[in-house]
Amino acid sequence: MHLNEQTITQLAPLLQARKLSSVELTRSVLERIRALEPRVRAYLSVMETQALHMAEEADRRFKRGENVTPLTGIPVALKDNLCTQGWPTTCASKILQNFVPPYDATVVARLKDAGAVFVGKTNLDEFAMGSSTENSAFQVTANPWDLERVPGGSSGGSAAAVAADECIAALGSDTGGSIRQPAGFCGVVGLKPTYGRVSRYGLVAFASSLDQIGPFGKTVADCALVMNCIAGRDPADSTSASVAVPDYASALRADVKGLRIGVPKEYFVEGLSREVETAVRGAVARLAELGAEAVEISLPHTPYAVATYYLCAPAEASSNLARYDGVHYGYRAADQDNIIDMYTRTRHDGFGTEVKRRIMLGTYALSAGYYDAYYLKALKVRTLIKRDFEQAFELCDVIATPTSPTPAFRAGEKTGDPIQMYLSDIFTISANLAGIPAISLPCGFAQNGGHPLPIGLQLIAPVFREDTLFRVAHTYEQATDFHKKKPTL
Q: N or C: which end of the chain has fewer CB within 10 A?
């Protein structure tokens, strides 16, 4: 097996024992990137020279035997809406095409301190608005399992890079499912932490009350190791929580005895693929065989989640994206006649169709005469959705659902119908509205000719109980082989 195909838990002991150098490992990943990128297109930029310098520094750390962590020397990819000092951060948008941040996001700085090696910035739906990574201004990323299908979104580049072994782990952001849905489509593990568990400082804002940064990994254990590094209070982010961070790696015991797994009846409805339902119910049955108890629960306000999200998120996007006006940084339209013309043309030319659609939706929902009817009502329903989960967790410890209603769909299949595209996140949105943690991991495959398509199992836990998610997910993973399968490229 090639070095780039290994996991953090396999590589870290070899690096620390100096049986393997970070430079060797990084070169293996860079070779993989060069070989596959013309077809997969997971990266918007590759930091080849910088990556090798970081790998050399990691090897010096090992030689000195100081400041070594499980992530030291590990090649990691970063979603291109995370600020990286001295390296472009585009958000896959023309309006930020030449923007180079003067500082690192907190999660980037923490990974640097841990000795991780950055190999590149990954593609995404523009400003993280989308479910297929087709909204990027620069390229469409392909799903490594079937290059004619989407990898999911908005963190499709990060998910595809991990699935194709073009990095060992990656970071993404999740506003309505943007880590979990692509993780499910690409057959990898992806975690959306509790809101406030990971600092958002340096994450280019989409919807500030919903955005969270989280890891992609080839295994549950790898995601736990990345979370150990990036989680915790940050004075630079007033919404980050002053809650102690446990050692997530210690939660990885293969034992679910005594835990109750809630199965919400509202998630197994019309529109759910038969293959997805079979795989997810099979995963719940497997957990029951391993000692957990499956209980049926109800989340009655689930049918209103998509409508609620598409009022709350665009309203916040309308406010957050007002800063892109061609004045301070980013793209500015040429040959403008006056300042109003400059604002208008800059935003018209700089933003893509989906971003403009959401700005208009949000501006309308916040406008005089419509605020109470739309935005305020959505906030009230958001509270009801949050209460649904609080009541459900009185009956169970973890909730199990499909990650998505179908496996990965074909590129171009839903671009002409925004409502159908929005519905692909129907099972992931509620966790963001409630601010609770959720993880997706592989639980089966759908038939697709010669290209099987991964199916994702979503597990949801109460606030700050990522340790419970890791425990249940790891137990299931250890009892199955789905995570070991690789796409044929």
A: N
